[in-house]
Amino acid sequence: MTITITAFERSPDGGRGLARDTRVRWALEEVGQPYEVRLVSFRAMKEPAHLALHPFGLIPTYEEGDLALFETGSIVLHIAGRHAGLLPDDANARARAITWMFAALNTIEPTIFELVTARLLEGDKPWSKERLPLVQDRIRDRLKQLSARLGSADWLDGSFSAGDLLIASVLLRLRPSGILDEYPNLASYVARGEARPAYKRAFAAQLAINAAPPPAG
Ligand SMILES: N[C@@H](CCC(=O)N[C@@H](CS)C(=O)NCC(=O)O)C(=O)O
Prior knowledge:
55% of the residues lie in helices and 9% in strands. It has a 4-stranded mixed sheet with strand order 2-1-3-4. Helix 1 packs across helix 9. By secondary structure, it is an alpha+beta fold. It has helices at residues 21-30, 42-45, 48-51, 72-82, 91-120, 128-150, 162-172, 184-195, 197-210; strands at 3-8, 36-40, 61-64, 67-70. The structure holds glutathione (GSH). Glutathione (GSH) binds at residues 19-20, 45, 58-59, 71-72.
């Protein structure tokens, strides 16, 4: 059955792989599933056809036969549950990998997303300069804890899993800020993720769209 995901017609990050379709592409590449991509404009994302797939008018979405999903956590979990390669067979190890997926999206990503908001949406507010260090320190609190847990291991719990895929994906958003490099083991962890052939294919695929000339009209 054909898998179709949605992605930005033109990503605001210009192809740095920070839009959330990249993590879904990465998961599909890890498990060797081919997929198609439907590109959507910001306007189309808020129109009924896309809202029927994604109630909040965002990307990515995932369609496979009569199944339609939104939310990257749910999409990556679905992919990992259907195909070998992203979750361990042992039931307890599997549950722990899923725990890291939730930690990525519930505990780490919100603090990192605050920084994006503080910079892009609130950067011109008079209180922004005072708030920024607070936001950065909340990220550092989380990274310090994550760094301590990872230690010198390659991955968070044994072999690479969907948990690592999502943790590395959310940490990647931090690279432009320089904060990631304050934690050398986390910077190496992310680099290990980026070095995986599946990640490289996912990154190249989204870059090919975003590096192309803008669509006519
Ligand atoms: N929690 C959602 C967040 C999805 C999300 O925020 N997507 C962004 C792209 S990375 C988007 O569509 N932004 C467009 C907008 O805010 O209008 C997920 O993980 O799928």
